[in-house]
């Protein structure tokens, strides 16, 4: 298909800053009609910021948006919508108890006199619309009564039905089964044939290679690659997403020093057959004292869900967790903590820090047993404990009484780490310990992880920074779609080998190259 | 163009959803537990009290007694579906009643206009504070509760005076006359309910309240004018309180400034019993009607017993509320767990 | 599968805005006391002070319990009904012995709190709705016990509770003060108190740290219920009568107002005990100042409404949206 010469939508030098971080740095991408353009990148790479700039939620600090040749600026999402830019979201934000037709028209229902909704017309319009995309259902039925895949397609059709020129699909397949994904793709192809410019945000390689025409990769807020899908291999794409140049093999990028470690032979933490429908399937692993086991994989591969289920934060359909030979029952964080397992959460703002409490109190949050006697907290003991860890972890804070929300990301992470250590765990689960913090702090945390291992803790390490996993782990498990697809030990561990396993072509979808 | 065959059973979405017509009905009954409970209670009442309960006269009097609560609950339903709450309704009702009685000295038309205008204005003020001012509805309407009650007292000379509607005024007919044997307030309440249904299910504004309650952020992203809607919702609520207050005054020919205390909570109870989720985004007016009727029937039944004090009515209502809400909650938590959310 | 959420932005740089936010209630209280000293006759008289203290004590006690509940991001609308329950218990058991009557009243409060707390913690019902049930039913139960009548209480112990003074301070005020100190200690110095703040501040973090979230939640509602019962006993002893129709009517409003005006946010995570007490005192003083200066009951309410709106307006988390 020949490309239109003029792009429908152009992002030119878009920059967006938030306090403390530049989310998007001078990003320029062209989106053409009749093309499915994939936008990929790991968490924090800037994907969602870009989307929100395009669909009017944010306004850019620098740069412009050009729609059909003229520069535009949207006061809000409604204006973007009216200008022809529609978005569908990861979670289907429609109303399950209103009818399909009502959902399709929500916000712009056809009306008769007195502002009454013209139900007749709404239903006929809806039916017509859906038939165009090959969907035939009774539009009067409640939305919730049709399958999730159809709901997702209806969401897309809704997005298109306002004569949209640009449709943004934000992770449209995240809640779909594989056969449902095929149905979705049929709708997308029809849209493409209708000359809509489609932005496809996803992290699933198979989808990108099956349905997308072009791909742009964001990393750390910058555009690192843009071009036709046909001109890039899977492994090249993975490498670009993770920030690796496949021709270079760099060593010693991190502060990790595996050599000094001396892991035991008996597993301290042992999990087997962890299964939770749709999230993880049959995940098993062992960690010995002094050993670091890294979990590698792309977004959505089930790493976080694995550690969350070990910690008892989410329930398991089946599987066992064992500490030092005896099983951990009760599946709750309280039990996990009692048995000596600690979790450093992935999202420290949502799940970690208590913004209304001071640094001091945040550190000793879980240490009530150590610092309190008969329920009364001993200031002296708190201070002793806090000083010990501030010193050891080198937490930089002006005043221990200040709110923890004022600390830098790196220091917050250290606070959370200190909190973990306060109750003397035997096993620690670290989920993205170096995310969103500056280089210096990263090195410090890496060194701390080494120390933990040297102290004899069993460590599970999750990081989307491949270098952390590769250089910090004694063993690496590679996860994909909730299952362990590969295990690397010792010398086998290298960035290349990990990426190879991740990029491995599925048997079902034999997509070249 | 290939048609996607959807006749095969679709993959189960979150929770079992009804499919056929009988399943739709069952689903409705399950979501609105108030309806079957109401039916059961009616049957029990009929069996226990026979004629005195089942008489047309009794039903008519129940209808009128419930009408004021129904009018307010219609507005409360919309507010709760949108994810908000309004604690000022009881006091606004009192204010409406007092103003009606007070303004009646100037004629029946002022007796109608004054309370409606004032209550609507107060509602609008609350709406602006909530919508544009982004203040939490709980606090704003709490303040509104105090303010409206204070104003009602003020007009009643600190509760010392109870204004009486002069006997010649026709405004009392609104509260005291009957149509087909049933008092006018009940018909007006019915009218309000039907209007409410039209607004909720057949107008853009109403349909958008679901989106608003489901997720305010998502609604904004879908282009819903959230701030404007909130203002309109609370303004409407104010108007409805004015109407209800007007009817109360018309019925008793006077405006007692102490009425309506706790009415807001009764309205919330009726709405919640009716199946509307307090978190917003889900619910409906049929459930509210059932909830209001249920509370009314319970009250009536307890009165029928006679020897039992009316306090038991409060006990039973409260217990119903707890039972229904617990059931709803258990159901909802099961759904959440299935979708992988972290739940306590 | 989430990106790092935006950091919580807490305004804590010192400035005039912060001053009002955090200390506003004390400033207002101080200003009002000053005004009264100048403008209101007999304000500083012992008799008046005692009167004000007696009137405000039940509110303070209920507000203390409410503050703990609000600290966990909850709310308890049933405190008034619990007070009524307590009053009815007193009337039922006063013939046996005054201590038994008081004891049973407190038991009633504990049971009420247990019910509320369990609904919230174990069934996950929203606090407004959970406590709404008892709000509706509780007063009914209380009325059923006393058959709807006002029961006069003739008992020396209870009379003493209501009338006696310790060093010039009414006993109920002494009790309120002691409780205030106790609650303040609990909040600041016990692990229980810290758990409350953690749960209200970030419930997910509290769960993730392995804190005993459910027991703590149930406990705060039990405490709130017990304190409300105590307040009910005090009111009963003060008026020498148990009147379940009117005891505690609208007290939930006063308590919530005191807590909010005193600087404890409804979103939980912070409990300002002293502020709560000051808030209760402030609202009481506003009320009585207006009455003394011939403004009516009605004006007083409207002023209260304005104060609440202003208080919350100033406490808004700037820049959080």
Summarize the topology.
The complex is a heterotrimer of chains A (about 525), B (about 350) and C (about 325).
Chain A: E1 9-18, E2 21-31, E3 36-40, H1 47-54, E4 62-67, E5 70-72, H2 77-83, E6 85-88, H3 100-105, H4 119-132, H5 148-160, E7 166-170, H6 178-193, E8 197-201, H7 205-211, E9 214-219, E10 222-228, H8 234-242, E11 267-276, E12 280-288, E13 292-296, H9 303-311, E14 318-323, E15 326-327, H10 333-338, E16 341-344, H11 348-351, H12 359-363, H13 368-371, E17 372-373, E18 376-377, H14 379-393, H15 409-422, E19 427-431, H16 439-454, E20 458-462, H17 466-472, E21 475-480, E22 483-489, H18 495-503
Parallel strand pairs in A: 3-8, 3-9, 6-7, 7-8, 13-20, 13-21, 16-19, 19-20
Antiparallel strand pairs in A: 1-2, 1-4, 4-5, 9-10, 11-12, 11-14, 14-15, 17-18, 21-22
Helix pairs in contact in A: 5-6, 8-18, 14-15
Chain B: H1 21-31, H2 34-49, H3 51-54, H4 56-81, H5 89-103, H6 108-131, H7 137-155, E1 163-164, H8 171-176, E2 178-179, E3 182-183, H9 184-202, H10 204-214, H11 216-221, H12 226-252, E4 254-255, H13 263-273, H14 285-305, H15 311-338
Antiparallel strand pairs in B: 1-4, 2-3
Helix pairs in contact in B: 2-14, 4-9, 4-10, 4-12, 4-13, 4-14, 5-6, 5-7, 5-12, 6-7, 6-12, 9-10, 13-14, 13-15, 14-15
Chain C: H1 16-39, H2 46-71, H3 79-93, H4 98-121, H5 127-145, E1 151-152, H6 156-163, E2 165-166, E3 169-170, H7 171-189, H8 191-201, H9 203-208, H10 213-239, E4 241-242, H11 251-261, H12 273-292, H13 297-315
Antiparallel strand pairs in C: 1-4, 2-3
Describe the structure.
The complex is a heterotrimer of chains A (513), B (344) and C (321). Chain A starts with 8 loop residues before the first strand and ends in a 10-residue tail after the last helix. Chain A has 3 domains: 9-232, P-loop containing nucleotide triphosphate hydrolases (Rossmann fold), CATH 3.40.50; 258-340 and 425-503, P-loop containing nucleotide triphosphate hydrolases (Rossmann fold), CATH 3.40.50.300; 361-421, no CATH class. Chain A is elongated. Chain A contains 18 helices and 22 strands. In chain A, helix 6 (178-193) links the parallel strand 7 (166-170) and strand 8. Chain A is of the alpha/beta class and 513 residues long. Chain B is an all-alpha fold and 344 residues long. In chain B, 71% of the residues lie in helices and 2% in strands. Chain B has helices at residues 21-31, 34-49, 51-54, 56-81, 89-103, 108-131, 137-155, 171-176, 184-202, 204-214, 216-221, 226-252, 263-273, 285-305, 311-338, and strands spanning 163-164, 178-179, 182-183, 254-255. In chain B, helix 4 runs antiparallel to helix 12 (226-252) and helix 6 runs antiparallel to helix 12 (226-252). A two-stranded antiparallel ribbon of chain C has the order 1-4. Chain C has a two-stranded antiparallel ribbon with strand order 2-3. Chain C is globular. Classes of the chains: A alpha/beta (513), B mainly alpha (344), C mainly alpha (321). Chains B and C meet through helix 7, helix 13 and helix 15 of B and helix 5, helix 11 and helix 13 of C.
């Amino acid at each position: 298909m020949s490309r239109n010469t003029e792009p429908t939508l152009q992002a030119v030098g878009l920059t967006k800053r938030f306090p403390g971080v530049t989310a998007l740095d001078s990003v320029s991408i062209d989106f053409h009609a009749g093309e499915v353009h994939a936008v990929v990148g790991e968490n924090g790479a800037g994907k969602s910021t870009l989307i929100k700039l395009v669909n009017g939620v944010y306004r850019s600090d620098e740069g412009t948006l050009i729609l059909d040749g003229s520069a535009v600026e949207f006061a809000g999402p409604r204006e973007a919508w009216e200008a022809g830019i529609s978005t569908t979201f990861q979670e289907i934000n429609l109303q399950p108890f209103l009818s399909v037709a009502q959902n399709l028209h929500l916000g712009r229902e056809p009306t008769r006199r007195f502002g009454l909704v013209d139900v007749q017309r709404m239903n006929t319009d809806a039916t017509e619309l859906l038939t165009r995309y090959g969907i035939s259902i009774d539009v009067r039925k409640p939305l919730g009564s049709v399958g999730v895949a159809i709901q997702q397609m209806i969401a897309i059709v809704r997005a298109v039905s306002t004569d949209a020129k640009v449709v943004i699909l934000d992770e449209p397949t995240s809640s779909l089964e594989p056969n449902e994904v095929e149905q979705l793709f049929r709708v997308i192809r029809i849209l493409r044939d209708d000359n809509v410019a489609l932005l496809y945000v996803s992290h699933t390689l198979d989808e990108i290679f099956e349905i997308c025409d072009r791909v742009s990769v964001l990393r750390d807020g910058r555009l690192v690659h843009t071009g036709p899908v046909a001109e890039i291999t899977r492994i090249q794409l993975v490498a670009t997403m993770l920030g690796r140049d496949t021709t270079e093999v760099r060593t010693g990028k991190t502060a990790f020093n595996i050599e000094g470690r001396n892991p035991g032979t008996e597993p301290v933490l042992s999990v087997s057959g962890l299964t939770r429908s749709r999230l993880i399937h049959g995940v098993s692993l062992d960690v010995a004292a002094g050993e670091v086991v890294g979990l590698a994989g792309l977004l959505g591969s089930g790493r976080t869900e694995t550690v969350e289920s070990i910690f008892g934060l989410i329930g398991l359909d089946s599987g066992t967790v064992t500490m030092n030979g005896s099983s951990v029952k009760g599946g709750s964080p309280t039990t996990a903590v009692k048995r000596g397992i600690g979790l450093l959460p992935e999202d420290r703002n949502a799940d970690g820090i208590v913004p209304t409490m001071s640094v001091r109190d945040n550190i000793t949050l879980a240490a009530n047993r150590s610092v309190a006697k008969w329920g009364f907290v001993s200031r002296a003991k708190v201070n002793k404990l806090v000083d010990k860890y501030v010193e050891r972890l080198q937490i930089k804070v002006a005043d221990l009484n200040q709110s923890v929300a004022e600390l830098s990301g790196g220091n917050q992470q250290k606070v959370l780490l200190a909190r973990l250590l306060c109750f003397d765990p035997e096993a620690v689960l670290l989920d993205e310990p170096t995310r969103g913090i500056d280089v210096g702090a990263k090195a410090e945390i890496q060194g701390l992880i080494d120390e933990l291992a040297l102290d004899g803790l069993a460590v599970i390490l999750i990081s989307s920074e491949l270098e952390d996993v590769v250089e910090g782990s004694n063993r690496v498990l590679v996860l994909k779609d909730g299952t362990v697809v590969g295990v690397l030990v010792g010398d086998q561990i290298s960035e290349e080998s990990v990426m190879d396993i991740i990029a491995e072509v599925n048997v079902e979808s034999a997509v070249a190259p | 163009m290939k048609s996607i065959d959807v006749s095969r059973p679709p993959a189960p979405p979150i929770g079992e959803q009804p499919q056929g017509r009988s399943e739709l009905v069952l689903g409705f009954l399950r979501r609105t537990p108030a309806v079957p409970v109401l039916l059961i209670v009616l049957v029990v009442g009929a069996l226990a009290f026979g004629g005195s309960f089942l008489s047309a006269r009794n039903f008519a009097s129940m209808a009128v007694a419930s009408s004021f609560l129904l009018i307010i609950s219609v507005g409360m339903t919309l507010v709760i579906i949108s994810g908000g709450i309004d604690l000022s309704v009881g006091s606004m009702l009192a204010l409406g009643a007092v103003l009606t009685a007070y303004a009646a000295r100037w004629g029946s038309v002022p007796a109608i206009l004054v309370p409606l205008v004032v209550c609507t204005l107060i509602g609008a003020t609350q709406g602006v504070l909530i919508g544009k001012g982004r203040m939490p509805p709980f606090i704003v309407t709490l303040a509104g509760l105090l303010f409206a009650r204070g104003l009602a007292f003020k007009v009643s000379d600190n509760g010392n005076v109870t204004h009486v509607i002069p006997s010649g005024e026709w405004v009392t007919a609104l509260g005291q006359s009957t149509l087909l044997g049933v008092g006018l307030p009940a018909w007006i309440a019915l009218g309000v309910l039907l209007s409410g249904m039209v607004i909720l299910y057949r107008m853009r504004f109403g349909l958008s309240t679901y989106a608003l309650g489901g997720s305010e952020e998502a609604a904004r992203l879908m282009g819903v004018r959230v701030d404007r809607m909130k203002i309109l919702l609370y303004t409407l609520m104010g108007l409805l309180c004015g109407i209800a207050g007007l009817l109360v005054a018309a019925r008793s020919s006077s405006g007692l400034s102490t009425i309506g205390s706790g009415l807001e909570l009764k309205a919330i109870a009726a709405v919640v019993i009716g199946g509307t989720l307090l978190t917003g985004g889900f619910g409906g007016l049929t459930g509210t009607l059932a909830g209001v009727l249920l509370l009314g029937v319970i009250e009536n039944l307890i009165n029928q017993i006679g020897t039992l004090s009316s306090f038991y009515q409060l006990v039973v209502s409260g217990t119903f509320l707890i039972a229904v809400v617990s059931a709803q909650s258990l159901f909802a938590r099961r759904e959440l767990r299935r979708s992988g959310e972290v739940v306590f | 599968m989430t990106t790092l959420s935006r950091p919580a932005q807490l305004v804590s740089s010192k400035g005039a805005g912060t001053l009002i936010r955090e200390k506003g209630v004390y400033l207002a209280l101080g200003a009002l006391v000053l005004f009264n000293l100048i403008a209101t006759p007999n304000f500083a008289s012992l008799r008046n002070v005692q009167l004000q203290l007696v009137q405000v004590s039940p509110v303070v006690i209920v507000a203390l319990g409410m503050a703990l509940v609000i600290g966990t991001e909850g709310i308890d609308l049933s405190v008034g009904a619990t007070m009524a329950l307590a009053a009815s218990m007193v009337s039922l058991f006063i013939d046996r012995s005054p201590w038994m009557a008081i004891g049973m009243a407190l038991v009633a409060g504990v049971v009420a709190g247990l019910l509320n707390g369990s609904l919230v913690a174990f069934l996950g019902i929203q606090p407004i709705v959970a406590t709404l049930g008892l709000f509706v039913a509780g007063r009914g139960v209380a009325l059923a016990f006393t058959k709807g009548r006002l029961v006069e209480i003739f008992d020396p112990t209870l009379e003493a509770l209501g009338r006696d003074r310790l060093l010039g301070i009414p006993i109920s005020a002494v009790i309120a003060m002691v409780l205030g100190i106790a609650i303040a200690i609990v909040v600041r110095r016990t692990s229980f108190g810290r758990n409350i703040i953690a749960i209200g501040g970030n419930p997910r973090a509290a769960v993730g740290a392995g804190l005993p979230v459910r027991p703590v939640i149930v406990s705060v509602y039990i405490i709130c219920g017990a304190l409300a019962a105590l307040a009910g006993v005090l009111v009963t002893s003060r008026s020498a009568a148990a009147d379940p129709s009117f005891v505690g009517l609208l007290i939930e409003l006063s308590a919530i107002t005191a807590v909010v005006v005193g600087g404890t946010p409804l979103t939980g995570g912070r409990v300002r005990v002293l502020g709560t007490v000051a808030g209760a005192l402030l609202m009481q003083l506003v009320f009585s100042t207006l009455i003394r200066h011939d403004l009516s009951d009605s004006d007083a309410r409207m002023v209260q409404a304005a104060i609440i709106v202003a208080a919350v307006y100033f406490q808004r988390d700037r820049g959080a949206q």
